[in-house]
Amino acid sequence: MYNNLNMPVNPDAPAHSDVRADYAGRRAALAGGLPAHGADAIVVSDLINVRYLTGFTGSNAAALVWTGDRPHRIATDGRYTAQVAAQAPDLDAVLARDTVAALLATVADEWTGEAPVRLAFESDAVTVAQFTELCAAPSAAEVELVPVRGAVQDLREVKDDGEIALIEQACRIGDQALAALLDRGAVAPGRTEREVARELEWEMYARGAEAIAFETIVAAGAGSAIPHHRPTGAVLAHGDLVKIDFGAVVGGYHSDMTRTFVLGEAEPWQREIYSIVQEAQEAGRAALHPGAPLAAIDAAAREVITAAGYGEQYVHGLGHGVGLQIHEAPGIGSAASATLRDGATVTVEPGIYLPGRGGVRIEDTLAVSASGPRSLTSAPRALQIL
Question: What does the pLDDT average to over 5-29?
Fold first, then answer.
């Protein structure tokens, strides 16, 4: 079976989940935390956070969440009249091009308290120009603006069962796409990095991905020593390390996985650094326990690489959260001050990078729970010689 781009389509590809998330519960959780910020309500303008709270996926939107029993609202413009009714049917919709100003006006109209309403806004999402315009709005005189940072992101860090199921489905698509590519010998000398990357992306689309999670990394030879190398016309050659970092998107949720291969025959130094990275990754995975300090998780893997003499060639943190964004909280690194939370989905991705020679990274996406981490990616982690 082929699609309209003449790419093979898997007729057994799983359909995206149609289970509706508990958006009302998410808004209630956000509202419950507002008093700690000294706020009566919050206007959410980051589009990813709006989606998390409402299900709405349009390109212009803001959401208003109150404490107490006042009605929550969503604002968007007239292009999305039908879409907002379908995706956020439980919310009153305000149609306006300037969504934040429109919600600010509703706040001023609905507030009956003697003191000005204390309205939180996402200080990490609002620009200086937007804040200036907000302060100049006619209704701003009746509102006390309260800057809040990361309130929704804090909720997003812990995934519910539906979110984990979507991430796992995206991971499964990635696993299957990579396996298909390897099975037909598509990662081979003579092909370019760009050819392999684009073919892998279409394999993910053919299996039901709605998008790729980020620009696929295919890095061969010396390019594999660059952590975020972008694929070029460089030709894969016998003896190369080939690092492939990629992911799919399902229902808005991302996957992330890296595997590193050797073409033809592995030299001793390639086997050595691969073995060290594999040991480090196992140590990092084993350290994923709810309540564990993020810096200690990073250290568990980093100490393996440092003890082997390659500490200076491991140039990034151990991992990051994965969800509606490919990089979200928590960040697992040596400078992290928080602890790992039950229900987080994170990557574990140590690496060794030898400039001018090559590099190795092994990465999986895992769900964290009290019973132990569960890998959502399942491609083999042992060294594969292609």
Answer: 63
